[in-house]
Design a protein that fits this description.
891 residues, mainly alpha, nine-stranded parallel sheet, 67% helix
């Protein structure tokens, strides 16, 4: 199975073949060939023949035009119809495994390219150093340094069920990726190459035989552990490497022998174990357990890091005499535990700096074990001890040791503390309202409803986490569907009820504005919020810092992707102006999902398009589901992602960018108004049509997605498919992507652009208005993953030709106008790497989609026997996993 010979036209096919780098082509051919061998060994030559025949027909149907394409598609459909359910499942498994292998080959090649680029220079267009250089030109060196030292990037990991890939599958892919990387380093031929072939075959065989979909839902704690695995494999070491790379640039020739100018700017957050909005599985006990697991992981990593640095800190006391402060530290350590101090001396004869750090490692272990006599009370105490060692080394003339590995360890302590990631709690405003009503009716000690008790226990859990791990560990409390100031005051009132006469924990209630109406009403709510005494108290304590969260998912489902994008931008403008009036240091928290219909797309480009005053060097966003592994699973890619977003965050507030964004927003305000009004009307004409929810469930695998065991959280907030209001945005986006329609990412734009009609003005807007350019580029990406022929087959599963025609007409119109404005031949034709990746895998996704359509049609046939229904569902769910891997996005 190979991917270098299939595109939507001969010209495109030639371009893509020319564009595929040789190392990537070789990797895909290698892995595809090995998979073919495994398939033949496991299922026989007939199975491999069926897989290859469907592959060839799908490529022909995708590549050719006119009658030849139709004939190939019809033949492919007939072949799929001829498969038994067992054979359909085997073929779907083959294509799904292939996508996993193709994805890892592409990721490996990306890592290869990034390593080469990083080895060549500290500076490239998207690096932090390039952003600093540009900012220096505009505001001067001192101001640019002040801004880079005040920079904040806050990724928040969330457990939304968008990762359709099992953890066992991820593990197998990771092992194959490691073998592929090893192959790069090995000499061609000889026993090492043969051994690599054997090992790859064994791992691919294991992947082929591993169940690709989960048999049961993961628990919340399972989700916590999955996130912690990414921390252990990449984040702990990658974050300080980003700081180091920046510091090397800032210090120049003094790098490594002078105190760092770079400061830690990444603060990790997590909703996993704290987000209880609509998830009854997240309880107060789960929150406590999640915080404990994170802390244990952080402390274990810090202990190992301390020992690692200590092993290289072998400076003799004669060449590097200890300072008086270090000798005092050693004395205090001996008083804490003479035996442990003596052991450190024994392991480090005449090496006082090493002995001090060995004892520090012992204290970190004691902190994890909760040894009251020896543990650190807070991370600041650990950092102070490390500073003593660093300053002693500097005084003794060993700055390279002081600011080498030891500095990276200090950065890790500063970044992760003892809690690893701040655990943020989220709950729906109506849950708080009901709890308050219950308490007021029955009294705090009365017979309260179980949900009310759980709400109170949640606040007690926050208090317990703070008491054990510090205020940094948990203080943010997000209120979903904040629609009135009372929804924020309720948080503080409930906290007071939970603690009575005791001191309540530090809490920052954060409003989450999600729907279109909520975004419109955000500023009046914030204005009233400022009058709350608890908020005034926090402003005095935290330097007048306020955080506001913006929801992308529900606003897009509410008014469509175009109107939602414009509404979010306008809301940010108004909120930023409100913050400036009140001397507030504002952080906007962007609830962006991975898919385009939920605010997805390149985060760095989105940052640069934000309105003036809305960033100010601070950017916070959710990193959801599949995005966590995609952005942080590999250390090289993680470093690149952090640098790109941080660089954009730094540059967004530069005079030139602010002027460009402000000028463009004013210049194209009329266009924005027209796009908003027309796109919203078009979107509502579809989703508010009578019977639309039922039709949506009929023509997409919406209901079946709920059977995928991919997350602890329910897909719906409680209502049936008769209402879209309580359907979560994730299955809304996921279902449309599976049907090769991606409606949530583009619907309404085509009509709005056609109604506006002025092509030259639209092209000018694309060149000069960053928000519009980002919107169109994201929609172009979304369109590249659609397929009109397959979409029509899904839509034919329903009995509403009127709705099907609306969708297909809008798809054609949107594609036509986006291509005209961007002056592209086909979607992503000007974005070489991304366009190549999407186009090359499209026929393989088509093959899986044909199997999925067959399964869906069979499930819609109510005459099926239950045993057949179960088998058909299994095939369908396997294709869902495969299409997700092929398109590289779910919800």
């Amino acid at each position: 199975m190979t991917i270098d010979e299939n595109l939507s036209s001969p010209a495109e096919r030639s371009l893509a073949r020319h564009d595929v780098p040789d190392p990537l082509r070789d990797d895909v051919r290698l892995l595809g060939g090995l998979l073919g061998r495994v398939i033949e060994e496991s299922g026989g030559a007939d199975l491999l023949h069926d897989v290859e025949r469907l592959r060839e027909l799908a490529i022909r149907a995708h590549d050719e035009t006119g009658t030849e394409a139709k004939e190939a598609m019809a033949e492919a459909e007939s072949l799929v119809e001829s498969f038994s359910l067992d054979r359909a499942e085997q073929v779907a498994r083959a294509f799904t495994c292939y996508f996993h292998l193709a994805n890892l080959a592409e990721e490996s090649h990306r890592v290869r390219v990034l390593r080469q680029r990083q080895a060549a220079t500290l500076t490239d267009d998207d690096s932090l150093s390039a952003a600093f250089a540009q900012l220096t030109e505009e505001v001067g060196h001192d101001e640019a340094l002040r801004r880079v030292q005040a920079l904040e990037f806050r990724p928040v990991l969330t457990a939304h069920p968008t990762e359709a890939r099992r953890r066992a599958v991820s593990g197998a892919i990771k092992r194959i990726s490691t073998l592929l990387a090893t192959r790069d380093q090995a000499h061609a031929g000889g026993t090492s190459q043969a051994e690599n072939d054997r090992a790859l075959l064994a791992e691919i065989d294991a992947l082929w035989r591993t169940a690709l979909i989960r048999a049961s839902k993961p628990t919340v704690i399972d989700e916590v552990k999955s996130a912690l695995a990414v921390f252990e494999s990449t984040m702990f070491t990658t974050f300080p490497q980003v700081y180091r790379r920046l510091d090397d640039f800032l210090l120049g020739d003094d790098a490594g022998r002078a105190a760092p100018l770079a400061r830690p700017f990444v603060s990790l957050g997590s909703w996993i174990g704290g987000d209880r909005d609509g998830n009854p599985n997240v309880t107060a006990e789960v929150t406590r357990a999640a915080a404990a697991l994170a802390a244990d992981t952080a402390l274990h990593a810090l202990e190992q890091a301390a020992y690692t640095v200590a092993r290289s800190l072998t400076l003799d006391e004669r060449s590097t005499p200890p300072s008086q402060a270090l000798l005092a530290l050693r004395q205090s350590q001996a008083q804490l535990d003479s035996a442990a101090s003596h052991a450190a001396d024994s392991e480090s004869p005449r090496e006082p700096h090493r002995a001090a750090l060995m004892f520090i490692a012992t204290r970190i272990a004691a902190t994890q074990a909760r040894n009251a006599d020896l543990q650190y009370a807070q991370p600041g105490d650990l950092e102070a001890d490390l500073q003593v060692i660093q300053e002693s080394l500097t005084e003794a003339g060993a700055p390279r040791t002081a600011f080498g590995e030891l500095q990276q360890f200090i950065w890790q302590v500063q970044t992760f503390g003892f809690h690893l990631a701040e655990l943020e709690v989220r709950q729906h405003s109506q849950v708080h309202a009901a709890a308050l009503e219950d308490i007021r009716a029955n009294g705090i000690h009365g017979d309260l409803e179980e949900r009310t008790v759980e709400v109170l226990d949640t606040f007690r859990a926050v208090g317990a986490v703070q008491k054990r791990y510090g205020v940094r560990a948990a203080r943010r409390y997000i209120v979903s569907f904040t629609q009135a100031p009372e929804h924020l005051s309720a948080v503080y009132e409930l906290a007071e009820y939970a603690f009575g006469e005791q001191d309540a924990p530090v809490i920052d209630a954060i409003p989450l504005f999600e729907t279109f109406d909520d975004l419109e009403n955000s500023v009046p709510i914030l204005e009233t919020m400022l009058a709350l005494p608890q908020v005034q108290k926090r402003l005095g304590e935290n330097g007048r810092r306020v955080e506001v969260m913006l929801g992308y998912s529900d606003s897009s489902k509410d008014v469509g992707p175009v109107a939602a994008t414009l509404a979010l931008h306008a809301a940010q403008e108004r909120i930023a102006q409100w913050a400036e009036r009140h001397d507030i240091a504002l952080t906007l928290f962007h609830g962006r999902g991975g898919a385009l219909g939920r605010g997805g797309g390149p985060a760095n480009r989105a940052v640069m398009a934000q309105p003036a005053g809305s960033v100010e060097g601070r950017f916070k966003l959710t990193e959801q589901g599949e995005v966590i592994l995609a952005r942080y699973g590999d250390p090289v890619i993680a470093q690149r992602h952090i640098e790109e977003v941080a660089a954009a965050t730094l540059l967004q507030s530069s005079p030139s960018v602010e002027k460009r964004n402000t000028t463009a927003t004013e210049a194209f305000s009329g266009l924005a108004s027209r796009l908003d009004e027309t796109s919203r009307a078009r979107f509502h004409s579809l989703v508010k049509a009578e019977g639309f929810p039922q039709w949506f469930a009929q023509v997409t695998p919406l209901e079946e997605l709920g059977m995928l065991q991919i997350g602890s959280r329910p897909a719906k907030r409680g209502l049936s498919v008769n209402s879209l209001d309580d359907l979560r945005a994730i299955p809304w986006v996921f279902a449309w992507s599976q049907a090769r329609i991606n409606l949530a990412g583009w619907y309404g734009l085509g009509t709005a652009l056609a109604e506006y009609g002025d092509l030259e003005e639209l092209r000018r807007a694309y060149r000069e208005w960053p928000l519009f350019a980002t919107l169109l580029d994201n929609i172009e990406m979304s369109l590249a993953k659609t397929d009109e022929n397959l979409a029509a087959r899904y839509l034919a599963l329903g009995d509403r030709d009127d709705l099907a025609d609306m969708v297909l007409d809008e798809m054609r119109l949107t594609r036509e106008w986006v291509l005209k404005i961007t002056e592209s031949e086909w979607p992503l034709s000007k974005r070489r790497v991304l366009g190549r990746a999407v186009q090359l895998r499209a026929p393989y996704v088509d093959a899986l989609s044909l199997i999925q359509v067959r399964a869906l049609a069979a499930l819609r046939d109510t005459s099926q026997e239950q045993a057949d229904v179960d088998a058909i569902r299994q095939v369908l769910l396997l294709t869902v996993s495969g299409v997700s891997a092929g398109l590289q996005n779910t919800g």
